[in-house]
Specification:
Shape: globular
Helix content: 25-40%
Radius of gyration: 13 Å
Number of helices: 4
Distance between the termini: 13 Å
Order of helices and strands: EHHEEHHE
Strand content: 25-35%
Largest sheet: 4 strands, antiparallel
Length: 91
């Protein structure tokens, strides 16, 4: 069953972060990750939320805890710990 992920974090600069995010498109495709939307806070354009879908909770946990993802975030300017919600659709 697919798992919806809502990931929110603060970045130094949205444009720099977006370049790094875009560079990960092939990796996301290989892992079966579908991006449903990328959002900026109305009050702070450097407060970013990504809504994605991953194949299963187990895969989501493995990806979200990977050192590679953390390193990619640091390179693209993520400056806060992510707030992550894992959801399953019931209706």
């Amino acid at each position: 069953m697919a798992t919806t992920i809502i990931n929110t974090h603060q970045v130094e600069n949205f444009e720099k972060w977006k370049e790094g995010f875009d560079a990960g498109a092939n990796m996301r495709k290989e892992l079966g990750i579908t991006i449903k939307g990328v959002f900026q806070s109305v009050e702070d354009e450097n407060h970013v939320t990504i809504v994605s879908e991953m194949p299963s909770p187990e895969i989501a946990k493995a990806i979200l805890s990977s050192p590679e993802l953390k390193a990619a975030g640091q390179r693209s300017g993520v400056i806060s710990a992510p707030e992550i919600k894992m959801l399953k659709q019931v209706i």
